[in-house]
Design brief:
This protein is α/β, with parallel strands linked by helices. Helices cover 51% and strands 15% of the residues.
Length: 335
């Protein structure tokens, strides 16, 4: 069975935009499912989504993720509905809370209450996408003047995927959204986590086959020793950063998944020796649980394991500059 493959764009550092867009066009020609653009405190996501929509024809374009604090629910609905119109119905809404360090100290917005804000944001966006007058009485937002978007939305229902961590928020995700973007779940626990969320999807009266769970961590194809070393170094650096420098949410997630001792060791190492020491403190076995780096054939095997666990969408990165080889690798990953 053909796998649904998602490919991301890195927000960190300088982006070779033309090269990235050419890779996106190849991915579109190969027939992958979706292209994902992240947003944190670097470049905004929506500008890139528009460029992707203009350079491609079939692939879905998605945010992975934008936060629900720095833009109002109405502004988010405007952004996504506009991109959906420009792409002729190819946008996926990817939303998350981010964390208090970013929300309060970059955006200057109070962080709490995250759970209520997520629910209300999704409900308001759905009303605006539908074309119905916006009359909403929530705990955070009270909107009573019946505004509608001043254009006819391309789709009245735009798919919304949520990046959530704790069980209460994941259960809400199953109830109100179309997909789940989990993070920091080890491979050996992925099946039971997906089984749990699919049960909550059924409780909400929906079919799990219509609810997309994207596998966390993802795979990176690196067919040379040099690229494998680079990829593993980047993976370790990212995981250590989120554990030690991004507040308590990701640390608690690792602890929930049985890696509290390892997370504590990373924090101590980072405090004493900086980022390189924090990354070095991560055991190889742990890195392989939370992501995978290998050859094309090894990555296909990992994707098969993700499929067996119940994931319907798979994140991939390909460290190959030759366009022909890049396309062949994506074909192999898609299956």
């Amino acid at each position: 069975m053909t796998r649904r493959i998602g490919m991301g764009f890195d927000w960190q550092g300088a982006l070779d935009r033309e090269s990235a867009l050419k890779r996106a066009q190849i991915a579109d020609e190969v027939g992958i499912d979706s292209l994902w653009v992240a947003e944190a405190w670097g470049q905004d996501a929506f500008t890139t989504l528009v460029q992707l929509a203009e350079r491609t024809e079939n692939v879905q374009v998605a945010t992975g993720i934008v936060n629900i604090y720095s833009r109002t629910p109405a502004a988010l609905a405007q952004h996504f509905a506009t991109v959906d119109e420009l792409s002729e119905g190819r946008v996926i809404v990817g939303l998350g809370n981010s964390g208090p360090l970013v929300i309060e100290h970059f955006h200057g917005v109070p962080f709490q209450p995250a759970f209520k804000r997520m629910r209300e944001t999704v409900e308001i966006m759905k009303i605006l996408f539908s074309g119905e007058p916006l009359n909403y009485d929530g705990d955070i937002f009270s909107l009573q003047r019946g505004f509608t978007l001043r254009f006819d939305t391309f789709r009245k229902q735009v798919p919304i995927y949520l990046a959530t961590l704790n069980p209460r928020s994941v259960r809400m995700t199953a109830e109100i959204s179309d997909g789940w973007l989990p993070v920091m779940i080890p491979m050996d626990r992925l099946g039971e986590e997906i089984e749990q969320v699919n049960g909550w999807v059924r409780d909400a009266g929906k079919d799990p086959a219509d609810f997309t769970v994207r596998a966390p961590g993802g795979v990176t194809v690196a067919n040379t020793p040099e690229n494998q070393a680079r990829a593993r170094g980047a993976q370790a650096g990212t995981l250590a950063f989120y554990c030690a420098r991004m507040g308590e949410f990701y640390y608690r997630q690792l602890s929930r998944q049985g890696y509290e001792d390892e997370a504590n060791a990373v924090r101590v190492a980072w405090k004493d020796g900086g980022g390189a020491a924090g990354a070095e403190a991560l055991p190889e076995e742990m890195l392989n649980q939370f992501g995978f780096v290998g050859t094309t054939e090894e990555c296909v095997e990992r994707l098969e394991q993700e499929q067996a666990a119940g994931a319907l969408l798979h994140s991939v990165n390909v460290m190959e500059s030759d366009p022909n080889e890049f396309g062949k690798i994506l074909e192999a990953l898609k299956g």
